[in-house]
Amino acid sequence: MMTARPSAVFAATLWVSFSMLANGAVADNGFLDRIEISGRLSAESRQFPDSPAHSGQGSHASGFAFEATGYVEGDDGGSFSITPFFRYDAGDPSRTHFDLREAYYLTYGDVGDSEWELRLGFDRVFWGVVESNSLVDIVNQFDLLEQPSGKTKLGQPMAHVTLSGDWGALEFFGLTWHRPREFPDMRGRLRSGIVVDPDLISYESAAQEWHVDLAGRYSGSFGLLDIGLSVFDGHSRDPTLMPAASSSGLVLAPHYERIRQFGLDAQLTIDAWLLKLEAIHRAGSRNRQLQEEDYTAFTAGGEYTLYSVFDSSADVSLFAELSRDGRGRNATSSFENDVLLATRVGFNDEFDTEFSLSVLASLDSSSRFVVAEFRRRLTDRWSFRADSTVYVDIDKDDVAYDVRNDSFIEMKLDFNF
Amino acid sequence: MRYFRPKSVLATLGTVLSVLIWAGDPTTVLAAESAEEVGLEIAIEARERQKGYGNFTANLIMVLRNKRGQESRRELRLRGIEIDGDGDRSMFVFDRPRDVKGTAFLVHAHKDEPDEQWLYLPALKRVKRISSSKQSGSFMGSEFSYEDMVTSEVEKYTYRYVRNEPCGDLECTVTERVPKSRDSGYSRQLVWLDEQEFRTMKIEFYDRRNAHLKTMVAEDYERFLDRIWRSKTITMTNHLTGKSSVLLWSDFEFQTDLDSGDFTQTALKRAR
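Structure tokens for the assembled complex are given below, as produced in the milestone run.
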């Protein structure tokens, strides 16, 4: 992978400095006594029952994934945390990749009645409240090789300062070394018909990936209401993919525009109801016709939970969300006018068994995504996960048309340590 | 933690009076006050004695036993802080089972309004505000429900004094309390407090159909800071399923350097 080498160098450097820092800080106690290590090793297999839509694609992706966190606390209250991730995939080699998910120094203290916190290094940040979409969540690049849903993120180098108190939290981010999205190559499923050539990457700013992106967020809780207001100014995490000619024929060249995005996320928690809204206004990005177009998008909906249904210990949550994108058919995401209906059953047993089923349907066409997920703990250390995504009647005009044949079922056996 | 709180003796006039009253024959008390008033006074006194701990940290092991006697374990760390004029705040950080390691739970309890609760999911780095209606649900698959685990204020129940009776070597008051919240899984609870220290010895839980659902027994009381009593072994038995769960507390530390800044959503994200 293109970014594997630089991040591997980063990781090695950080491991070394980490060990030295930790050794220095705890000379008497010994490094190994103070370091906490936890993580997960998973054996995984993803099967694609339908024959591929594009040439070169395989029928499965199988291998293992490893993610572990090393944590050490200094005597001064500061701490250092490092989380490397590695996936090896024998079925789809384009999924084999390394990423430094986290490697940050954390320290905090009091300032008057409030508190400050500093995080310096690679980190992952989550913003948002809804389940089906991630509009406001913009700090990190998605790890597309992991999941098409965009729930997994690449580590992003940043300086992150938080001031918090009873009035809420104010956060400032300085972000650099932009992480480009990694796309499957010819051999991978869940890709565009024309592959993305990572060598043809370009940025709007002359500083390229070293441009310093800025972000800020205020978040607060007021009784039933939790609210977040955010702003981001910098290179978009979503590339514009432009057709280009290369030695291997027609490819897509990823281009990252400078954008400015204002975001709002809010949740009202009333009894068993969670009412949610995420909305953004983004300026500076290009639409599906590759023209610059400012736009507004939102996802609104709710979650309702029935507790202890039928006198069992199980909880059943029901979700409904509506997504609209002001660009309509020119939207670059699949959420231009879509509705999510979902249910999740948490059995609340000693194995934390959980099952969920969701349907994301376009209101303009026949396109539907159906996602089922199951997980259950087997022992204190072993757990099992299975999930399936089915693409149903994907419309020719849909952004997801290229993955119409890529419905899959996936199983994961995890060893947690 | 609701039932296992430290109890501080406050030498207020009210305390002295109620101690004098409890030392006497309960029937004479009933003549002077209604059973509801007496029940409330007991609850207030028990609460007063729990106050003044400032803040604490502790480790907790939960042992879950099914009908066949098979066991599984949960390990978590807790911290709590008293807030002037408001309910307590507490944070739970899970260590075991390993697949939920790092998951953390923050509660801001309130006297007259619903509690605020947030869950931190480390895999997504996500803080999610969750409904405080999830009171009757099982806590980590145990026989303890959320409402059994989080701090509850005096104001959240109505009370009725029932009787005095021996409980082991001690003498106990028995009070019935009825949750005000519709979301509670219980129609009522019977609470045994020892007369001397107002420590919770036993609670019987009755479900919405008034069936005797669970019994909680608190043992191994230890006194901290010369006045704060904490039970280190709390057993909850479910009479309908035959399952039971035991809370084993250890490493209590009181009046640490925690402050309210350690009980925010920002602090939840760095909990470990």
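Residues 11 and 233 of chain A are 27 Å apart (CA to CA). Helices of chain A lie at 4-25, 31-34. Further analysis is deferred to the final report.
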